[in-house]
Each structure stands twice: as C-alpha cells, then as structure tokens.
Amino acid sequence: MVAIAKIEFDATQYQISHGKMPRGRGSWAFQVTEVNGWRGEAPIHFSPSMTLAEAKAWMRPIAHGDAGHMRGVTIHVYILP
To answer: Which terminus of the chain is more solvent-facing, meaning fewer CB atoms within 10 Å of its CB: N or C?
Structure first.
C-alpha cells in the first residue's frame, strides 16, 4: 500500500517579507507550488482567522485536492506573506 502524500510547508516568502517566521493568529494564505518535482501554479487559499498550526491542519486536505489526491508524493505548500 502506498502512503498518503507528504506535505511540506515552506515559509521562505513569508520570512523574507516580514523578517521573521510566521506564528500566531490570523488569516493565512497558502499555495501549492510543487508536487513531486512538478512545478505548477495552484490557486491561493485563504484560511479563516486561526492559529498557524490550525491553518496548516485546515490546508492539508485542500493541498491533497490541489495535487489530485495522489499518493506517495511530496506536496510543497508556500505560506504566503
């Protein structure tokens, strides 16, 4: 059985823009940018107001959908500024 996709969150753009790592509560913006080495531009998803940890949990099923529910792949998600 092939494992479900692995999701990696990347805060580089956020950190460059804000000068710090993301944390706290707010409305977060996410974008799936790469699936197993294949680059693409998926829509930007805005979370309701919640903590970053809650927003990541909220984003996981959306990222799987943007990646076509593939299994055994790595999905890269940007945390946008």
So the answer is: N
- State pLDDT tens for residues 43-59: 899 999 999 999 999 99
The boundaries of the domain holding residue 11 are: 6-80
- 8 A C-beta contact, residue 76 and residue 5: no
Report how many domains make up the chain: 1
CA–CA separation, 62 and 5 (whole Å)? 12
Please check the confidence at residue 71 and state whether its pLDDT lies above 90.
no
Per-residue DSSP letters for 2-65? PPBPEEEEE-HHHHHHHSS---SEE--EEEEEEETTEE--PPEEEPPSEEHHHHHHHHHHHHHH
Rounded Cα–Cα distance for residues 2 and 69 (Å): 12
* Amino acid letter for position 21: M
